[in-house]
Amino acid sequence: MIPPDRTLWINGHLRRGVEATLSLFDRGARDGEGLFETLRVNGGRPFAWERHMERLVLSAAVLGFPVPASPVTLRAALDQVLEAEGLTDAVARVTVTRGIPGGRPTRTGAWVEAEPLTARLWRGTRAGAAAVIVSKRLFEPGPLGGHKTTSRLAYHLAREEARVARADEALLVSPDGEVLEGAVSNVFAVFAGEVLTPPLSSGVLPGITRALALGWCAAAGIPAREYRLTLADLRAADEVFMTNSVQEIVPVGTLQDLAIPGRSVAGALLAACRAEVVRDQRDPGR
Ligand SMILES: Cc1ncc(COP(=O)(O)O)c(C=O)c1O
Predict the structure, then answer these.
(1) pLDDT by residue (tens digit) across 142-152?
(2) What is the pTM of this model?
(3) What's the 130 CA to ligand 1 centre distance in angstroms?
């Protein structure tokens, strides 16, 4: 296979194609000990950059990683990658690893990459409603569920189920029947105007878009709270939607074979999201 001819920033240097490599001594490469953030870049500006950096740095601290490269360094790295790749609307990924052991003080390993946005949008994001299936594997997030680690196999297997079913996303359900989240997204359901989403205490990822969506609900006077949802709840909901930093707010059009017609809350939140993107671009220093 020909390696992608892309330019990445790796541990302080721009590297292209086959030159973009990580040391086999890095514990990220060896044992999958890494954390990452995926974010959307609109018109050259990474959206909610500070929130993503906060989640990354907090997880690194909780999991006992060495000190990651500073957000200022990573931001400059992203700007370099965007320029090298000629991208303005993109999906950026920032990864930090536990680095190479020994030689204190150590730093995490780090790399930054970017890809064109359009290639990464779900069919359902483009069409305005997603097709969602329920993963056949029961899922237990465990204590790492709240961290965006590079150990992604369980999530990727669910995404693969979605791909095979020609769906956009797969819902993860716990052995006791609790709907947790999507393989790469958080889930919300609307009942008589009230918005419910699984609690962080269930081990779901504290999604950046989830937090923003709850804030936009509050600002719009839409009642919203955490609640342990079952699949039966979702099937009875007026509206279901997913949130993800790249896809933003996506109404669920079908859940397995069930059509879900409601769009109004997701529509309002998507409008709030787009307005925030425009504000952010007009006044970056805010
Ligand atoms: C398991 C999981 N849940 C939720 C999300 C959504 O998080 P965010 O809004 O920060 O993109 C993701 C993102 O990739 C994810 O992997």
Answers:
(1) 999 999 999 99
(2) 0.96
(3) 16
